[in-house]
Description:
The protein has helices at about 1-15, 15-45, 50-60, 75-90, 100-110, 120-135, 140-150, 155-170, 175-185, 185-210, 215-240, 245-260, 270-280, 280-290, 300-315, 320-325, 330-345, 350-355, 370-390, 390-400, 405, 425-430, 450-470, 470-500, 500-510; strands at about 90-95, 365-370. By secondary structure, it is mainly alpha-helical. Mean pLDDT is about 80; it is low at about 60-90.
Amino acid sequence: MFGTESSLxxxxxxxxxxxxxxxTGTSSLISGLILIFEWWYFRKxxxxxxxxxxxxxxxxxxxxxxxxxxTNPTTSNGEADSSRQSVSECKVWRNPLNLFRGAxxxxxxxxxxxxxxxxxxxxxxxxxxxxxxxxxxxxxxxxDAIMQKAWRERxxxxxxxxxxxxxELEDCATAFILLAEEExxxxxxxxxxxxxxxxxxxxxxxxxxxxxxxxxxxxAQHRRDTNVLVYIKRRLAMCSRKLGRTRExxxxxxxxxxxxxxxxxxxxxxxxxxxxxxxxxxxxxxAVLAKYDDISLPKSATICYTAALLKARAVSDKFSPxxxxxxxxxxxxxxxxxxxxxxxxxxxxxxxYLLEMKSLILPPEHILKRGDSEAIAYAFFHLQHWKRVExxxxxxxxxxxxxxxxxxxxxxxxxxxxxxxxxxxxxDRELLPIFHEVSVYPKKELPxxxxxxxxxxxxxxxxxxxTHQFPELMGVFAKAFLSTLFxxxxxxxxxxxxxxxxxxxxxxxRI
Length: 511
């Protein structure tokens, strides 16, 4: 035993300061490489590599059971259905309140020099235009044949030139639409072009309406002409809304919904809700919500948060957190809080924009329901309506975070809606410009192993720096630390030596 101690003491005394510099430097380098790899793996896959390996491979060897694994076929099928539901909920929708490219988006680019629309977003719009504004019979009308090629053009100037070329042949409704959307620099100019498009579109609609039953070709043409007419009337109503003629805009939207009740996929009711809120006609807003906030209809942030706003309006002017904590919530206040919780569970990104905790940008042309893009589009148009209702934002501020305590964890379970989709972050990054910081829910917390590796890397780097600057002093500290570390072991060995016979101890040391 004493020989071992003397050998260890001799070994420690022979170590030079360069050894300690090399040791700490190598440890710092290795822990830094592990940290970089762990961070890269976490950013790409959302989990720690070390944690995943320990759970997937080491736990089964140690006899552990993975609690997340399905225990029966029913559970497996349920999880598969849940995952399919999450994927289906990540469908991208046309923004019902999308801005005008020429009069609004391009103005932003001229002022800031930044592009507010991504290529992915504009590509989706090009696909929409080809779907709604073209049909197989376009070759029968020369102007429509030109426009069919124009909608496929990626270059804006090429599209605009093609639209002018089509108008030289005849009054083409879709050519007027393209110019109103992309060439007009003001809303008034866009409205003028849409009125010209309306005359041409109504004429084509009447002709195709009479011939729609003659063949499938005429039926497809009538369907296209209907889409064109609805689009024109909707954009005219939006022009009126932007120019301050809100009552006229609301009337146009109501008439359009009555004339084409089956085209609910365009979500014209969301335009109507925004106009009615601007008019502060809350009774009509409630009537529209009663029709569209139905359990069988798809929800949106506009539906959920407008319902919450109406409930909050009844109590927000007199709401006080201190008074509510003393006497409890009244029935009306409880209804308002539940409506806010419902809205926040549907889209948890909206409150930060409404409370101006996060800056707004121009909304994209397409949105992802329950995603950051939908939150931006809603807050961009509805923040003023929340500010107009006294105390509504205060009530939202006091209650919205309570939603997350109600939602079961993990998020696969949900509470009032289907589980929150896991694909929203990826889709939102495609829809939103690169200068915007995408809101992510739920926030990915850094795994323990990344934090541990970061701490280890920092500690060893500091030791390497100190050892390089003060080699003798750090050598003394290292020897003292090792001596202190082995002191308990030496004490135990001495006690064992005192109890055991010397002959037995001699045999054990030889072994």
